[in-house]
Structures are given as C-alpha cells and as structure tokens.
Amino acid sequence: MNVLLKSSTALGLALALSQPAWADMAAATDFLDKEIGDVSTLSRADQEAEMQWFVDAAKPFVGMDINVVSETITTHEYESQVLAPAFRAITGINITHDLIGEGDVVEKLQTQMQSGENIYDAYVNDSDLIGTHWRYQQVRNLTDWMANEGKDVTSPTLNLEDFIGLDFTTAPDSKLYQLPTQQFANLYWFRYDWFNDEQNKADFKEKYGYDLGVPVNWSAYEDIAEFFTGRDLSRMGVEDAIYGNMDYGKKDPSLGWRYTDAWMSMAGMGDKGEPNGLPVDEWGIRVNENSQPVGACVARGGATNSPAAVYAVDKAINWLQKYAPPAAAGMTFSEAGPVPAQGNIAQQMFMYTTFVAPLVDSAAVMNEDGTPKWRLAPSPHGAYWEEGMKVGYQDVGSWTLMKSTPVDRAQAAWLYAQFVTSMTVDVKKSDVGLTFIRESTISSDHFSERADKLGGLVEFYRSPDRVRWSPTGTNVPDYPKLAQLWWQNIGDAMSGAKTSQAALDQLCADMESVMDRIERSGVQGELGPVLGEPQEASYWLEGQPGAPKPKLENEDPKPETIGYDELVSSWNQ
C-alpha cells in the first residue's frame, strides 16, 4: 500500500474511534492539522470555512447510517479508509464506504435499477454509463437536484467550473448526471532508461533501420516488442527475462474493458469525432441523427465485426502470445496492472494511470533520487486510425444518485460526495491516488514540485491534449447489459475457441439482440434503439463513407517513432 495511505489510514481510524456520534469544528480542526496541512489549494481560513459549512449542513442528518460503494483502487481506498472516518467525525453522519470490484459495482447498480430497492445511497460508477443514465432516467440529474431537493446540501464552494471531466458526465440534454471523484487515462508506458541506452539504440537502429523511440503507430510498437523480448539486459542490472509487451487475457469482466476502453478506436474501427466517434463509436455502435442506436453489425452500418475490429483483436492476441510473460494470458486487469513495476517489462500499449501510484512505490522501476526509470506518452494508433479520431480512453469514476434512494439519504450521501471532492481535500487525495479531477489541483505548486517524479503524468494533464482521451460515450444504450457481452465473446477469441471474426460476429449479434429487446420494451422511449434494416456488407464497406471500413491491403504500414523529449515539449507548448 502507498506509504501516504498507510499513515493516513491510521489517522482515519483514530478519528473514527476518538470522536462522538456527532462532532463539530474541533474534529475538523484535528483533521486539517493532522491530514491536510498545507497540501491544499485553499488557505487554512478557507479550509476551515469549507469544513464549517459541512458541519452546519449535516445537522439534520446526524446519526444516519449511509452506505456508498466504489471499485477498489488506491483513490477509493483513501476515501474509504481516511476520508469516510473523518467525515463521520466532522458531521456525525455514519458513512460506510464499501470497496468492491468494478464489475460488482455495475451489477449492484443494475440490480437497483431493475428492482427499485435502495441497495446503496450513492454509487461511484464510471461515466461510461452516461448513455444508460440519460436514456433510463433512473438517476437524479444533478443539475435539477442542486437547484431543488439538493439545494440546501450543495456546497457554495463546490466550484463545478474547476472540475475537468464534466463534459463526460453531461448528457445530450445538457444536464449533469454524475460528479467526478477520480479520473485516469490509458497512456503508453515505457522504460525510458532502456530506450535511451546507447547500445539498445544502436542495435535497434541496425536491425530495423529507424530510431528507437516512442511508437507513433502499431507497426513500431510491434518492432519494439520483438526487439526487447528475450533481450539480455544484465549489463544494466536486469537479471530477469525481458518482455516487450504487457497485457492480460483471462475470460473475466475486466477483459471487456480491455477492448471497450478505446482499444478499438485506437485501432481505427470507428468514425472521426471527439470525444467519441460519430455516427459509429468505439464500441462499433451506429446511431442516427437523433442519437438512437441503429446497429452494431456491419449489415446495419455498425463496425463491431468489421475488418478493423478483427485487426484490433488479432493484434492484441498475437502480441500477448509472442511478447508478453506467459502468465499474462491468464491474468485479469487487477493482476496484470502491477506487473510493469516488477522491472522486466519494456513497454505497455496502454496503462491505466491508476497504476502509477504503485509504480512510484517500486524500487525496481524508480531511481534512488525518486525519479522514475519509465515515462508515459500517448498510445500509438493502428492502421485504420485517421486524424480526428478518438486517441484513447479516460476513466471518470463519478458519484451517482439513484432516484430509488430516499431524498434524505441521497442528501446525506451528496454531502459525503462533495466532501471527498472538495478543494480542501483534493490535492491530498490526488497526492495519494494520482487520479486528477480539478484544474486547481493539477496547476498547484505542489504538483509542479512533484512533476519530475511522475514520469509525464502531470505534463499530460496540464496539456490541451488531455481532452482527447475520453470515456465511453452516449451511443451505448445500456452499459451493464452490453458490457458483459464483450468479455464473454472476446474471451472465446483470446482462448482460441473461436477466430476473432467468429467471436466478433457473435458479439455484434448479441448486442443487437439486447438493443432489439430494449426497443420492443419501449422503456427508453424516443431515446432508445431503433434497429435499421440489414444490408449487404458491401453496401457499407464499399458504398458509404467512414466506418465500417473495408479491409486494408496493408495492415502494417511503415513504422514511426518520436523522441520522448520532443513529445513533452509539444505538450508544454
């Protein structure tokens, strides 16, 4: 566990045990003294004013037991183990913040949507569900909530303009449905020290005829993966076997995220458009001019089983088999994430930057002065990708209030959601989890001082490029139902039970079956799917612009690389 989190957890437990059922500013002062200090963008006077508001606003809810849930990552561990006990001590509201797997979070949310039973008073769920929330209208839209039932419990210092991810949690009706509490991108990760080694550079140039550097396209990534796999780096103090790629392939819910979290758009499967491709997005779902899904298979103008999609899955399987550790094929997201920190991985196509926190704690990939041996950069793109298309994924875990939650319980939970995202605590929370949500935190002096220890993460989030990494968009009409189809079907391709084409044919058919049921049920009204009439594949592949795209004659174009320092310079500009 992160050292900062260890000491903070002890404080959180101490606060919880030492405070009565309802405390006042004495508890807040203790929290600010022992946990926050000067690691905040607010002055001490402004911190105290913000905490005083929470004390006052919470008085009608003192003694209530409130249950919230999130997935298990470092940021949410800090919220659950440190901020929840502090909130209880300051407000007298008893918060139980459960930590479970992301798939379990979605399952609980889906159960509450279907049953109307109030399982949790608030959920941290990905903004990937924005299309679901907008269409089903089973969550409170926060725009109306803050103006009406939630008005008296909405902090005057919430400062929505400071949040960097609100575009991703706002639906086409211009209403805000979720409040971000953590964000992290999928970025390319590589061993900067190995790439800058003169012997490695010379050997690579001799073998491939171009410079070793950050790969711009998948052709270069593949060359680099081949070059480093099995390479002897004992002269650099590395005794373990070296691999040029890291990934995971177990048939598990997390395998679905592996592909829907922009792998297909990075390959070039969808259409141009930011934050998401239109009319065909990174799931391969086509929508009409009214944002209604009309299909996922090529026959209906979708791209889920298109040549570009097959190319994307084939590449992932090939690289996993040839260039990754043998155990990777049997790993899940959470098992594979920490592996680069062990010191024998040369590069990873995309790393969820939530794993930067454990990287920083690993002596195997950090220098003695606290600077990293690795760097982060934009992920390379596939052969079907074109300028103007989505370049990568950004996870935006966000507080969500269900309409099935009683008003008073939702109000108390909303106070907690604002507390853990408040300007008072956000710099410290970001210091632990490195999942930025506020512009003020990213721009703070604290992270200017820490930037050289984080391998380009701060530079990325300060760059205008960051908005090009985006979550799942509104083309997806029911995330819980459709997401489970991905890991089940692609799992068949990963295991070899089916070819990529056969697995994707089944996937898109299953997706359309779900969308057909939604359409016939009428539960999403005029926002729901309206499946189009099937056409011959040639109608779309040869006769219509954009996605789905016909198969390229050459799926391995000329490799391109760029120097990392040149790349960061462009970010700074």
How far apart the termini lie comes to 36 Å
Q: Which fold name is given in CATH as the topology of the domain at 3-184 and 394-466?
A: D-Maltodextrin-Binding Protein, domain 2
Radius of gyration, Cα only, in angstroms? 24 Å
Mean pLDDT, rounded to whole units? 93
**Fraction in beta strands:** 5-15%
Q: CATH H-level name of the domain at 3-184 and 394-466... which superfamily?
A: Periplasmic binding protein-like II
Per CATH, the architecture of the domain at 3-184 and 394-466 is: 3-Layer(aba) Sandwich
CATH class of the domain at 3-184 and 394-466 reads Alpha Beta
Number of strands: 12
How would the global form be characterised?
Answer: globular
Which structural class is indicated by helix and strand composition?
Answer: alpha/beta
Helix content: 40-55%
* Number of helices, counting only DSSP H or I runs of 4 residues or more: 24
Low-confidence segments, given as residue ranges, are 12-22
Strand count, sense and barrel status of the largest sheet are:
8 strands, mixed
Summarize the structure.
The chain is α/β, with parallel strands linked by helices. The chain has 24 helices and twelve strands.
Topology:
Blueprint: H1 3-18, H2 25-36, H3 44-57, E1 65-71, H4 74-91, E2 94-100, H5 102-115, E3 122-126, H6 130-136, H7 142-147, E4 179-191, H8 192-195, H9 198-208, E5 214-215, H10 218-228, H11 253-260, H12 263-267, E6 286-287, E7 293-295, H13 307-323, H14 333-336, E8 347-352, H15 356-360, E9 374-377, E10 392-400, H16 407-420, H17 423-433, H18 439-442, H19 445-450, H20 457-462, E11 469-470, H21 479-495, H22 500-521, H23 537-541, E12 561-562, H24 564-572
Parallel strand pairs: 1-2, 1-3, 10-11
Antiparallel strand pairs: 3-10, 4-8, 4-9, 4-10, 5-12, 6-7
